[in-house]
């Protein structure tokens, strides 16, 4: 990841959109993220998620604008930080050639700042709605290789790709375990992980590096709900954190100093999410 944090400190990015805790139902308009990105100075990265649908009443309702269209809008407004990313496209939701074209467009519009996260699965109801339920590890590996080939313009059918991705952006594998990393022989430019139990994180990270036989950049995601009346800190699955501002700041500081973590992407939901994002960045420095 780009950025110039103090030595030994991971860079800090926003996973948009920032969301008031009292408003989880409405879908944010494209300008919501534009205002948030403009209001947060000196971010190292801006990440957009790809959620085509969520269950009714889900905490992620309203988080699902199209990330590629959204990045093009932000790029045109000239408010992008050094790195922009997709966290992440679930494999199988877009044909590899269609995905490669979207990536090439976003890479061109953002001046080569893109990092592409490819996920191994989202929320089970979303997977079912998209026809992705019950896929095998072999199907995942085949889809991964097809996307990698399409991004590189390697087509075996005599066709010419309708895009040119120059340079090809780094592709991070978003997964919770090492099984899928082994299935693609470590063929990823980085790992996208969830904040959680540090010992489990270290075990998976070590297993992945054994497969790849190299050190790799790791981006860790935290979905933070700030509640000033909270006592202590609660960690949930898939990077969900609930706690007071100070407690969450202390947690993020530990992760930013973890020797394996290159970047921390943070989504904030609170009564004043922009201000709390800035506070968390300061508290974790």
From TrEMBL:
Residues 84-230 form the Luciferase-like domain. It comes from the Bacteria. It holds the Pfam family Bac_luciferase. Coiled coil: none annotated. Transmembrane segments: none annotated. This is LLM class flavin-dependent oxidoreductase. It comes from Phycicoccus sonneratiae.
């Amino acid at each position: 990841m780009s950025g110039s944090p103090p030595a030994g400190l991971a860079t800090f990015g926003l996973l948009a959109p920032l969301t008031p805790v009292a408003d989880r139902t409405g879908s944010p308009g494209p300008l919501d993220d534009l205002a948030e990105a403009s209001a947060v100075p000196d971010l190292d990265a801006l990440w957009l998620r790809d959620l085509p649908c969520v269950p009714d009443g889900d905490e992620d309702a309203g988080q699902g604008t199209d990330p590629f269209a959204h990045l093009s809008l932000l790029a045109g407004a000239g408010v992008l930080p050094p790195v922009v990313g997709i966290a992440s496209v679930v494999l199988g939701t877009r044909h590899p050639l269609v995905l490669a074209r979207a990536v090439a467009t976003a890479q061109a519009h953002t001046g080569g700042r893109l990092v592409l996260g490819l996920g191994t699965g989202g929320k089970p109801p979303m997977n079912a709605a998209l026809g992705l339920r019950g896929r095998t590890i072999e199907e995942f590996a085949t889809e991964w290789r097809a996307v990698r080939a399409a991004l590189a313009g390697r087509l075996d059918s005599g066709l010419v790709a309708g895009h040119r991705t120059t340079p090809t952006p780094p592709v991070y594998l978003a997964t919770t375990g090492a099984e899928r990393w082994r299935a693609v022989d470590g063929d990823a430019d980085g790992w996208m992980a969830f904040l959680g139990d540090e010992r489990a994180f270290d075990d998976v990270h070590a297993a992945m590096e054994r497969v790849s036989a190299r050190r790799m950049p790791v981006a860790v995601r935290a979905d933070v709900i700030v509640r000033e009346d909270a006592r202590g800190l609660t960690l949930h699955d898939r990077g969900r954190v609930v706690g007071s501002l100070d407690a969450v700041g202390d947690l993020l500081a530990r992760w930013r100093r973890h020797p394996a973590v290159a970047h921390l992407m943070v989504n904030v939901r609170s009564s004043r999410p922009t201000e709390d994002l800035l506070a968390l960045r300061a508290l974790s420095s």
